[in-house]
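Fold it.
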Amino acid sequence: MRRIALLLAALVALAVPAMAEPTYIGTMMVDNCEEWVSLRDGPGTDRARLAKVPLYGIVTDAERDPSYGDFTYVNYDGQYGYILSRYLVPWADPEPEDGTVLDATVRGHHITATRTFEGDGERLEVACDDLWTYTTRSTTSTELDFTDAFIGYDDRVMVYNTEKGLTALDPETGEMIWTLEEGLGASITHTMDAEGTLYIGGYYGPDPVAVDVNGHVKWRASAPDCNWLYKMFIENGELVCTYDMMPDGEAGYVVFDLDGNLLRQEKAGN
């Protein structure tokens, strides 16, 4: 009998799928709203409001799970609750005052990128330990950033110059893998999907552009009458783009699918 009971228990365990653990994200920042968002006691807009979390407020212990729907579970000032995911973005320390725009360890190597002003333009120097350096310059400078650097697909070092385009460098040798000679805006924002496709745009530039791992443009999207794209992220298989100015003159966000089709435009709110 005991052997039969153990066998039945094993069969039941096989029949019941294991529950997936929530995805831990960590520290996030409130964004894409006018003044504040609601921290609620459950994952629904009909749930009680526990607190108002201000724009640019920091939350910790953020985690997501399909059972939360459009919400993220967070800790705000010692109180746990749920915030709509579209109002949260990953948080990182502000850029150091010395102009460092990239400071990362990749494949055991320390990679930095430092932006300085040179003449009437910007100078961006990217360095990997004592192995290699790469420098790019813009001919002009304004209150916006004309150069940038970040880590992309397969740990590639992505270097951008609004006048010269986007370049992918091998992180170990500094050799150029490809260059997309196209301006994607100033003060660019970007995000990347699981396949390595980059989605890039910026102030005074085009609406989001999708670039594949080989440096080819997959598509260019359009958000009519929306200006000054400053942040984008992927959520639930959709590309969410935040703009300083929507057709009504206020901030909001435009949502595309990952093929560049416009899904909806919405005003930032609570």
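Residues 1-18 have pLDDT under 50 and may be disordered.
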